[in-house]
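Quick log. Single chain, no ligands specified.
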Amino acid sequence: MPRVQHESVAEEDIELDLLLRAIFLKFHYDFRHYARSSLRRRLESARLAFDCRNLSALQERVLHDDGVFTALLRFLTVQVSDLFRDAEYFYTLRREIVPVLQTYPQLRVWVAGCSTGEEAYSHAIVLAEEGLLDKTTIYATDINRESLNIAEAGVYSVERLQSFTDNHQRSGASVPLSTHYTAGYGSIVFSRTLREKILFSDHSLATDGVFAEMQVISCRNVLIYFERALQNHALGLFKDSLCRRGYLGLGAPETLRFTEHEHDFTEVAQRWHKRC
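-> predicted structure:
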């Protein structure tokens, strides 16, 4: 009698699946539908950093050693950010989106995947300079609590100031960036006026729900780390969170093509902004 052929699964794939499931079951962080190639690179770096022989050994550490998972999150979440990153995005926001936002009596903005806060402060600065911040609440979310703590403080190294300033000027600003911060002891801190308008909180695009009636959602350079199923899920959250004719801002390499929500949005400002 012929033997049934079973598809071979590499040990590394099994270990990866088990580690991600263990993280989900114990800590309720769901990385199971993140892009595998990116996850593998990050977990390989984590494996070496924790001096583990393989992912099974890393799983053992995560499940039984206090504090290991918090440290592992630094590898699993992308911490690359900058003030006014891709300045053209914010130039477009000022010139093409702000005039529409000026017609609303109140504004709600969601910055999803805010990392250490630069993206949220960039939006706050634009809205302040365009006279809209007083009527705006910005919700800035991320899954990494350590990153959110940095974001809430609004303190950044003065070594980054030149890059911050250059990006700000390219965004179409008419006032100097120094209007929005104070400097001292090797750091800059953004003004209380900005910080009080931003609510930082934990939120997972994989497991948590919607924010209602947003006029703008910015989720840039996050979807590229998701598999298609999770991209569809996140875009569904954004669609349900936006008010009618609200705006979704994406990163330069991101697109709605071939997703379930491709036809739920209309491109309105080059490649950056989509309208629900």
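The first strand starts at residue 107 and ends at 112.
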